[in-house]
Design a protein that fits this description.
This protein is α/β, with parallel strands linked by helices. It has 19 helices and 23 strands. Bound molecules: glutamine (GLN).
Length: 535
């Protein structure tokens, strides 16, 4: 029988529920269990694909092309379980399919209601993930939002029903709350008491509490929380602020025996914990020496979450290269007015231009790319960042001053980046880009080949525009290296600068597959060359 763990949050948002859920997943995997992670998002958007990165952070892409909430990226970095479209549920999806079934007459004339029809749809989707692979032991379901929100009620009600139907040893409730510090450092438990009361009103008694606080909670505080919330004393845990890295969280929970308590409550035998991978992440974190300064020249710089996977991938690479990577976030529009990019870029050891959509800031990215090319500074272009390399090459090496992407200038005489053929008739903007994992075939003697060490790779994509095939010949004969293609060789997947220490642009987004225990090869080689160039 599968076990289910629902992870909910209280008091306020941004407490690190995704990292806590992922850390629990990592710990259960370290005990040899097969874990699948899921996210329930209470918003009405069908998926995260149409949401602004400013408001909601990055859109994470799965192998099967789902555009999901960024928490799936956390799951992918902490755990091994497969993540697909099915692992991300939104209110929009649930209603969409219930309404479709109603139109098809599947409810046989009954009045269609939140309970049981919406809650059944939620439970069926969770059970479908549980049944997808026959060796799944535990499904961890993170419920987005905060208890008390109107939107999350159907998901919490579905959790309550599952606890009732499957029994308390098969379905656990983990609740994450905040213990704020007020006045002279006094920790306040009242918001946690209220948060647990809200859960109890819905009919869920949390089995485990994780209390986010500035410090580890002391015994009297834990006792007080336990007394007021009906949660066993040994099931109240601290989640102190971490000043190292989020990847220490599994170790912090392990030291408090969180995994042992979960296994005991679920009646699962407690096997040896293999914590070496996590300990080794921390050893490498502490062993880093020196610093490199990497300039990220992008569009959505104010919100860290907008490029979450990218920043994480650079961090993973820094662990592998034994050097600290200082991320210098540069809003590309600040470069646009400057005659000389030096004023802003001086002292930067490597440039990364990440993915992005729309015209704003493009000229600033072009300036950064030209600066890196001319000054022989390592450059890594991802998706839009590769398209920028192509436009820069056309304008400055081939001297086609009007060269552009048709995304920014539909009427250009030199459309060196243009709409993918399959996109020409697309009118519906949700889920319609070139999405998900595709095979890329790598040419010999290229930097991308050196990075991956293999000829065939699978990376994930999310774009509508592409290197224009009509310019392949002129680009290649002027020296731009076309280093990788899709398997049908109809699309250029990677370009490289000749006679340059390391200038690589890829149409895919390798950051989605990077892990703290295994950095993405291109990120690793980029940070390695940046380090080599300055030392
Ligand atoms: N805007 C570009 C496109 O749609 C680049 C997309 C991206 O950077 N992921 O092709």
């Amino acid at each position: 029988m599968n076990k289910f763990i629902f992870v909910s949050g209280g008091v306020c948002s941004s407490l690190g529920k995704g990292v806590a859920a992922s850390s629990i997943g990592a710990l259960l995997e370290s005990r040899g269990l097969n874990v699948r992670m899921m996210k329930c998002d209470p918003y009405i958007n069908v998926d995260a694909g149409t949401m602004s990165p400013y408001q909601h952070g990055e859109v994470y892409v799965t192998d099967d092309g789902a555009e999901t909430d960024l928490d799936l990226g956390n799951y992918a970095r902490f755990t091994k379980g497969r993540l697909t479209q099915a692992n991300s549920i939104t209110t929009g999806q649930v209603y969409e399919s219930v309404i479709r079934k109603e139109r098809e007459g599947q409810y046989l004339g009954r009045c269609v209601q939140v309970i049981p029809h919406i809650t059944d749809e939620i439970k069926n989707r969770i059970q479908a993930v549980a049944k997808e692979e026959n060796d799944t032991d535990v499904i961890i379901i993170e419920i987005g939002g905060t208890v008390g929100d109107i939107e999350s009620i159907p998901f919490l009600e579905a959790a309550r029903q599952m606890i009732h139907e499957c029994g308390k040893t098969n379905v656990l409730s983990v609740h994450l709350t905040l213990i704020p510090e007020v006045g002279g450092g006094e920790l306040k438990t009242k918001p946690t008491q209220h948060s647990v009361k809200s859960m109890q009103e819905i009919g869920i008694q949390p089995d485990i509490l994780i209390c986010r606080a500035p410090v580890m909670l002391d015994e009297p505080t834990l006792r007080k929380i336990s007394l007021f919330t009906n949660v066993d004393l040994d099931a109240v845990f601290s989640s102190p602020d971490i000043n190292t890295t989020i990847y220490e969280e599994p170790i912090i929970f392990f030291d408090q025996k969180l995994d042992q308590i979960i296994l005991r409550k679920m009646g699962v035998e407690c096997r040896h914990a293999e914590m070496r991978p996590w300990n080794s992440v921390m050893e490498r974190f502490n062993a880093r020496q020196g610093k490199v300064r990497i300039g990220i020249v992008g569009k959505y710089m104010e919100l860290h979450d907008a490029y979450k996977s990218l920043y994480e991938a650079l961090f993973h690479a820094s662990l592998e290269c034994g050097v600290e990577a200082e991320l210098v976030k540069i809003d590309s529009s600040t470069l646009e007015e400057l005659d000389n990019a030096d004023a802003v870029l001086n002292g930067i050891n490597g440039i990364l231009v990440p993915g992005g959509y729309g015209m704003r800031g493009i000229n600033g990215m072009l300036k950064a790319a030209a600066w890196a090319r001319v000054n022989k500074i390592p450059y890594f272009g991802i998706s839009l960042g590769m398209q920028i390399m192509v436009i820069d090459w056309a304008r400055n090496i081939l001297n086609w001053s009007d060269a552009d992407s048709t995304e920014f200038n539909p009427g250009t005489k030199h459309p060196v980046v243009s709409l993918l053929e399959e996109q020409v008739n697309v009118t519906n903007y949700g889920g319609s880009m070139r999405l998900g994992a595709f095979e890329t075939v790598i040419e010999d003697e290229t930097l991308i080949w050196a990075a991956y060490g293999e000829k065939q790779i699978w990376e994930r994509h999310r774009h509508r525009y592409e290197f224009s095939n009509q310019y392949r010949q002129e680009m290649a004969s002027s020296g731009l290296k076309l280093a990788a293609f899709n398997s049908a060789r109809t699309l250029v997947e990677c370009v490289e600068w000749p006679g340059h220490p390391w200038g690589v642009g890829v149409q895919f987004q390798p950051e989605f597959k990077s892990k703290p225990t295994a950095a993405s090869p291109l990120f690793r080689d980029f940070v390695a060359i940046v380090k080599k160039c300055i030392h």
